[in-house]
Amino acid sequence: MNESCKRVPASGVPLLLFLTVACALPALFPGDARAQRGREGPPEQGSVEPVNLLPNPYVTIRDFGTLPDGRSWGSVSAVNVDIDGIHIWAGDRCGTNSCATSDVDPIVKLDPDGNVVQSFGAGEIIWPHGMDVDAEGNVWIADARIANAGELRANPDAAGKGSSVIKFSPEGEVLMVLGTPGETGDPPTHFTDPNDVLVAPDGSIFVGDTHGAQFQSSPGPDSKSRISKFAPDGTFIMSFGQWGYGDGEFRAPHSLAMDSQGRLFVADRGNRRIQIFDQQGNHLDTWYQFSRISGLFIDDNDVLYAIDSESGPNYNPGWRKGLRIGSARTGEVWYFIPEHPSARASGMGGIGSMGEGVTADAEGNIYAGEVGPVQGMSKFVPTWVPYGGIGR
Q1: pLDDT at 97 over 70
Q2: What confidence tens digit (pLDDT) does each residue in 18-29 have?
Q3: Of 305, 308, 307, 302, whose CA–CA distance to 325 is shortest?
């Protein structure tokens, strides 16, 4: 029997539905490359009991935020709270899943009611994927791919953009570019489909690439899977990590976060885990209890938000998509917000949909950027006051 058939579903999913989907999908697609490629994980992950049965003390608000001119949201994976702890930045993929042929501003700043108060980036970004806001309020975007052949035919001006990291001022002025836009390759001059960027308190810059490596069962020329570190002025310092299943290896470092101790947390999505490093690239710990994570955020009180948009029978049997909230200090998982109902699943199959990007404001409200059949932004409002003195 498939391992997912042996597991008990979390509260809220009918047992018959869970077993039907979990057990039937692998049988329906036994030789389908889409269902099978890169589905292997580290052996240690297989011994971890799925964390699906936890309280959900949040109210879900779908379709948060209204874009300029009434345009519809597209896919959103890049989200981050502003330095004021109130406003939320988001990278909309221009109403669809790419900005390569669009002339709208993909980067928007939302007030607590979801109104856009700032926007920029039209014609400068192909595929906003990851985001950070530094101590001065500058907005950093990981533009995770270059334009494909069809997009270049439709818009030749899309050439020379993408697969880079861009630093914008809060008003949208380009202040720095890392990588060579429009080309893939290796640091210090290039990235290969960078997933995320993080700016440490001292101004050091960390970039994780590559996106497609999570679906590879063996390494190839485009596996990469590394973290690169740069000085505040953009000078290359080092890269660490490579494709693989072991500690210190990655299959697509998909999201980055840093705790109050200065430890670098990496959502190693293809390997269904978080890896923790010091800022010199030394491996400190590996956590499997937060699932197959697409997005990762740690607030000032070391509350860890880990969002899973992909789990299902093919890629993480027994685990549900959803948002797990816990402690970056201890690794304890406290809460679980389950997936949105949807006719088609996000990610790689399974049940329902959940976003890829995640952040939280100073009041403990959580914001998710949605990618797939459910798009745009979601807001999760706590039903208690989480931060009277802050944290647990």
Answers
A1: yes
A2: 333 344 333 333
A3: 305
Rounded-to-integer distance, Cα 371 and Cα 337, Å: 17
Which two three-digit tokens encode residue 126?
């192909």
Residue 92 in this model has a pLDDT that exceeds 90: yes
Give, rounded to a whole angstrom, the gap between the first and last alpha carbons of the chain: 40
Q: What are phi and psi of 33, to 5 degrees?
A: -65, -35
Domain boundaries along the sequence of the chain: 3-382
Map residue 34 onto helix, strand or coil.
helix
Residue 222 has what pLDDT? 85
Give 37-77 pLDDT, tens digit per residue. 778 889 899 899 999 999 999 999 999 999 988 899 999 99
* CA-closest candidate to residue 378, choices 387, 388, 370, 386: 370
What are the beta bridge partners of residue 230? Answer: 205, 236
Report the length, in residues, of the chain.
Answer: 392
Neighbours of 220 (CB within 10 A): 11
Residue written as token pair 């899977």? 225
Domain 3-382, CATH among 2.40.400.10, 2.120.10.30, 3.90.800.10, 1.20.120.790: 2.120.10.30
Whether 178 contacts 207, CB under 8 Å:
yes
Q: What tokens does 196 get?
A: 């995320």
Q: What percent of the chain has pLDDT over 70?
A: 89
